[in-house]
Design brief:
The complex is a heterodimer. By secondary structure, chain A is of the alpha/beta class. Chain A has one domain: Cobalamin-binding domain (Rossmann fold), CATH 3.40.50.280. Chain A has a 5-stranded parallel sheet, sandwiched between helices. In chain A, helix 2 packs across helix 3. The two termini of chain A are 13 Å apart. Chain B has 2 domains: 213 residues, Rossmann fold (3-Layer(aba) Sandwich), CATH 3.40.50.300; 32 residues, no CATH class. Chain B is 53% helix and 14% strand. Chain B has 14 helices and 8 strands. Chain B has a 7-stranded parallel sheet, sandwiched between helices. In chain B, helix 1 crosses helix 2. The two termini of chain B are 38 Å apart. Classes of the chains: A alpha/beta, B alpha/beta. At the A-B interface, helix 1, strand 2 and helix 2 of A face helix 2, strand 3 and strand 4 of B.
């Protein structure tokens, strides 16, 4: 029996739009993943704590507010500091193309912008486990 | 094992990893459980159950805060259903527990029921042991109160809180669910809504039908509005009262004995199953016997007898 892969779907920052995150969460569930969804407006501390306590394999963050350049790297830094730097971190939402290299340099493994087919996201995660 | 030492010292990533290990039920998990078992038994277990949307997570959030105010550390295990179709799950209980999520003295873990593959009650019991071993004073177990396995989980707690809400149907629903028998404390949540009083009366009437109602603990019915915190203090007092009762009457020993007996049985059955699988000469079984059953030359019951005789001789 293969280990069940667990994914945290998190909404950092202050925007109140979680439709995208919920659609992605459902797609992960339908692909057989165990998804932990923590709701809107999560701080980097909350996301890090949830990722650690839930022992997830993947942290997927959705951001539409423009704060991705601050919040995503902050979560990665906190995960590392707390001994959980081994998790695959991916991002999604309204993220300008030109910001993506910076996010990747900070440790975000992949970024999925609006219009990405769900299949692409699932296949990406499948390929990692 | 380094992981064990770190978990004992309260290291969160290590506790989390240990739970994953025992949840998976791998050979490594058996080693972990053997190692930690003798150092468990210190935690107080509180089960919270009720239908989806009845406010279990919100109530748990509030009760945990009350425990924290007394300086106790708390572990929470929140079980949500796994989809039987895809094996996936969306575990959303943390959403309602944001009030305690960042508390250093609280550890919240979400678990999927994982269908028949995992054996949910075993996985949950194992996870409880890890939290117990890590030294949490209280452990809350939250599950949807439908289905045998979910009821199996909560009924092994020291105290079981059954949550109802107005508007779910008549009193027959409550007796159908099989949760009247396991509740030590009944909560009517969202009691600011119409029909709350009716639910209280119906519950009281159902409990009154219990043949043992005059012996021992009499389950109270408490009205709450968890989102506002109304009634939570009273509920918390009752939880403590129930625990005092368990200690005074020594019913706690009885309960824990039953729990352990069930657990030993469960482990035994699981091992027996594995053993039978390993001993089955599958080729012979599948190719020859199954064909004969199909063509009605043999019946399944004789075949099973034969297998059992061969396996355990």
């Amino acid at each position: 029996m293969a280990k069940k892969v667990r994914i945290l779907v998190a909404k950092p920052g202050l925007d109140g739009h979680d439709r995208g995150a919920k659609v992605v969460a459902r797609a992960f569930r339908d692909a057989g993943y165990e998804v932990i969804y923590t709701g809107l407006r999560q701080s980097a501390e909350q996301i890090t704590t949830a990722a650690i306590q839930e022992d997830v394999d993947v942290v997927a963050m959705s951001l539409l507010s423009g704060a991705h350049a601050t919040l995503m790297p902050r979560v990665i830094k906190m995960l590392k500091e707390q001994g959980a730097g081994d998790k695959l971190v991916i991002g999604g939402g309204v993220i300008p193309e030109e910001d993506i290299p910076e996010l990747k340099a900070a440790g975000v493994a992949e970024v999925f912008t609006p219009g990405t087919p769900l299949k692409t996201i699932i296949e990406y995660v499948n390929s990692k486990f | 094992m380094e992981l064990l030492e770190k978990a004992k010292a309260g290291n969160k990533p290590s506790i989390a990893r240990l739970i994953s290990i025992v949840e998976e039920g791998t050979p490594e998990s058996a080693a972990v459980l053997r190692e930690i078992y003798l150092e468990t038994g210190g935690a107080r277990l509180i089960g919270v159950t009720g239908p989806p949307g009845s406010g279990k997570s919100t109530l748990t959030d509030k009760l945990v805060k009350a425990c924290r105010n007394k300086g106790k550390t708390v572990g929470v295990i929140a079980v949500d259903p796994t989809s039987p179709f895809t094996g996936g799950a969306i575990l959303g209980d943390r959403i309602r527990m944001s009030g305690i999520a960042l508390d250093e003295g609280v550890f919240i873990r979400s678990m999927g029921t994982r269908g028949s593959l995992g054996g949910v009650s075993k996985a949950t019991h194992n996870a409880i042991k890890v939290l117990d071993y890590a030294g949490f004073d209280y452990i809350f177990i939250e599950t949807v109160g439908v289905g045998q396995s979910e009821i199996d989980i909560v009924k092994t707690a020291d105290s079981v809180i059954v949550v109802s809400v107005p508007g779910l149907g008549d009193d027959v629903q409550a007796s159908k669910a099989g949760i009247l028998e396991i509740g030590d404390i009944f909560v009517v949540n969202k009691s600011d809504r119409d029909g709350a009083e009716r639910v209280v009366i119906e519950l009281a009437q159902m409990l009154d039908l219990n043949p043992n109602k005059d012996i021992g603990w009499k389950p109270p019915i408490i009205k709450t509005v968890a989102s506002r915190g109304d009634g939570v203090d009273e509920l918390n007092d009752k939880v403590n009262e129930h625990y005092d009762y368990l200690l005074e009457s020594d019913e706690i020993t009885e309960r824990r004995k039953i729990r352990l007996a069930n657990e030993v049985m469960e482990v035994l059955m699981k091992h027996a199953e594995t053993y039978v699988h390993s001993r089955l000469e599958e080729e012979e079984f599948t190719s020859k016997k199954l064909d004969k059953i199909l063509s009605r030359e043999l019946n399944p019951y004789d075949v099973v007898d034969e297998i059992l005789e061969k396996t355990f001789k």
